[in-house]
User: What shape does this take?
Amino acid sequence: MNVKVVRRPRRGWLEQIYLWEVVLGLGVTFRHFFINLGRHILSLAGRPGQPGAVTIQYPEQPPVLGVRARMRHRLLGRADGSPRCTACLLCETICPANCIRITAEESPDVTVEKRARTFSIDLGMCVFCGHCVEACPVDAIHMDADQVELSAVSRSGMIWDITALRRDKVK
Ligand code: SF4
Ligand code: SF4
Assistant: This one.
């Protein structure tokens, strides 16, 4: 077996007194501060009334989310409108936050063994890891509902049932 020995790097006295490292850290902070300040001044001078280059005026100005951003879950359906989920429980099993609850029932479709009778996700506990999407063998669950504002006034309000999860994309 090959063992790779990694030697602890020796620190000089300048690093051990930490003052030089503090100066370097402040240098990074001030560099970002002045770069952002310059961007704001240029943006405001060039386009009066327009926001600065970095700050987003949320909620008036919604943020542009990346195409791979994980948003609210969405349960996909078949061509006939029935949920695609076959209640295999893989997503419930793999969920690290233990926030998916599914009960199964027999499907009237002879080509499908089971379907979900109830399916809920507690979005107050979800850590948006995306494991449920990765685990699904029939591509029945996506995290692309274009909805990231998911607050509620009660804990129970954060539990989304199958009807709510069947809602399509917001946009
Ligand atoms: S995104 Fe992660 S934590 Fe949230 S429901 Fe899916 S598996 Fe669970
Ligand atoms: S992994 Fe997919 S098919 Fe299985 S229970 Fe979850 S959503 Fe349904």
